[in-house]
Amino acid sequence: MELVEKLLKGDTRSVARAITIIEDGGEETHAILKGIYPHTGRAAVIGVTGPFGTGKSSLINKLASALRREDKKVGIVAVDPTSSFSGGAILGDRIRMRDHFLDTGIFIRSMATRGQMGGLARATGDVVDVMDAAGFDTVIVETVGVGQDEVEIVNLVHTTLVVLVPGLGDDIQTFKAGLMEIADIFVINKIDMGNWELVKTQLEMMLALAEETRAWRPQIVETAANDGIGIDKLMEQIGKHQDYFLHSNEHDEKDKKKSLHRMRDILSDRIWSALQGHLSGQETLDSLVRRIVKKEIDPYTAVDYLTGKILQLENLEKRTE
Length: 321
Description:
This protein is α/β, with parallel strands linked by helices. The protein has helices spanning 2-8, 12-24, 29-36, 56-69, 92-96, 124-133, 196-209, 231-246, 249-278, 285-293, 299-319, and strands spanning 44-49, 74-80, 106-112, 138-142, 159-164, 185-188, 219-222.
């Protein structure tokens, strides 16, 4: 496939074209992903998550600059909120990363969540694979920034940065069950605002109380991204975690979890597509939902019905073999 061949040589136009096809669910999607998959697994993948307003994009902007000084190619996947009008991404992150627009060693792609939960778009993992196969040394994934539900990032990346800012106060407790448990590195950004010591103290207390279930103890780094303060220290900690990750059992375990997670997503999409193609007449998913809303049937009965349809479809395929 010519597109895949060009992509593997690092052609940025082919990278952009492949990502567009994958996002749109085009017919070539499977062929592209099948062609690039043997060439993935080489890039260091960093996830950046945290609440709105913590300066994630500004932080990524500085991290990208630091990586470029090390002559590394950088891919950035910025998952933005979905526009309620077009269904596309609101490209705020691209605007904040305008310093890199003319740098051919950096490729930035904004993606819309399109209703997907967990702070990521459905195709994010596939887009990371495209950038990986295209020869980017580091791929940075920024989640949309909606709060403690953004834990899906841990299934995709090697190193997870959770970004917080001064002024959260007791609200930091609300993130404990979600974001607080997935961090490899906590970044207290915007320390120029003052009062950041309170956030650090709370983090240290929570880490001290946490059960020692991980060999890697999450680190805390203070930054003021807009001024470049603390970026060198953050790069150092990222390097230490990546070295630990590559030489620990976590590498294999995370690859297994990632593969299982991706298979479940693909299987879910395939099942829904098969069901929609198999239902006809008055039998539609929308009609079942309406019946549930009217209390004519319960959700479990609806799922039993759909499961029966799947079995019918399977038996039909067996008879035609």
